[in-house]
């Protein structure tokens, strides 16, 4: 009977110790501290993900979070400013009624609708309009040459020139638009097509040059057409 009591008492003494040890080991494996609270990594500007509440942060961690939020706010402002700038540029240069792109398209349409221009260039469906050509065939043509300036009276002048190419000839279109002070639309001051027409070679006998029958070719001349 004594042995039984001793064994039972010894088992009762050992069991709580084992239970306490297993609990402590479990908390240690979970990353707990001596106080029984889970530990965490210190918050920095790069590692802060916002999961830790503001009241649980130290002074240094609060400064890191404030710095991170300030940087994020500045990045958002910079992105918004760039987006507004791009949208403004697209509207003024492409979508606005008096933009360069719209004025260029209107001038090209007027050239294609002119019978005089079609007689020199050819079929309107085969006419191409483009900017200054490049010597390198692998590079794209330059943008349309356009200048906008105001005179002393406040009138706005837009000057533009571009190339046109048709099945018969090539040419250059000259455009001069004027927006008078107080008006909202441009008006045509000049719209001209300058085409170089190639004439057939003429046989000439210039005086004192070469032998009789020697011919000199006439390369061509510029034929302006005002619309």
From TrEMBL:
Keyword list (alphabetical) reads: Membrane, Mitochondrion, Mitochondrion inner membrane, Protein transport, Transit peptide, Translocation, Transmembrane, Transmembrane helix, Transport
Q: Known Pfam families for this protein? A: TIM21
Q: Which GO terms describe its cellular component?
A: TIM23 mitochondrial import inner membrane translocase complex
Taxonomy, superkingdom: Eukaryota
Cross-referenced InterPro entries? Tim21, Tim21_IMS_sf
Q: How does it assemble?
A: Component of the TIM23 complex.
Spell out the family assignment given in the record's similarity comment.
Belongs to the TIM21 family.
- What's this protein's name? Mitochondrial import inner membrane translocase subunit Tim21
This protein's species is Trichophyton rubrum
């Amino acid at each position: 009977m004594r042995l039984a009591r001793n064994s039972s008492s010894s088992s009762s003494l050992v069991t709580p110790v084992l239970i306490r040890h297993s609990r402590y080991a479990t908390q240690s494996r979970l990353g707990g501290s001596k106080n029984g609270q889970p530990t965490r990594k210190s918050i920095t500007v790069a590692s802060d993900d916002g999961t830790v509440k503001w009241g649980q942060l130290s002074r240094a961690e609060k400064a890191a979070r404030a710095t991170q939020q300030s940087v994020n706010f500045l990045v958002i402002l910079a992105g918004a400013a760039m987006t507004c700038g791009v949208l403004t540029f697209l509207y003024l240069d492409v979508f606005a009624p008096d933009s360069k792109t719209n004025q260029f398209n209107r001038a090209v349409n007027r050239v294609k609708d002119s019978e005089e221009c079609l007689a020199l260039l050819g079929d309107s469906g085969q006419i191409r309009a483009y900017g200054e050509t490049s010597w390198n065939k692998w590079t794209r043509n330059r943008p349309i040459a356009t200048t906008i300036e105001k005179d002393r009276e406040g009138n706005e002048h837009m000057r533009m020139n571009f190339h046109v190419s048709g099945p018969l000839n090539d040419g250059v279109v000259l455009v001069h638009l004027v927006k008078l002070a107080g008006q909202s639309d441009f008006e045509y001051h000049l719209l001209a097509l300058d085409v170089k027409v190639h004439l057939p070679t003429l046989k000439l006998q210039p005086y004192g040059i070469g032998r009789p029958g020697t011919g000199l070719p006439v390369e061509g001349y510029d034929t302006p057409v005002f619309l």
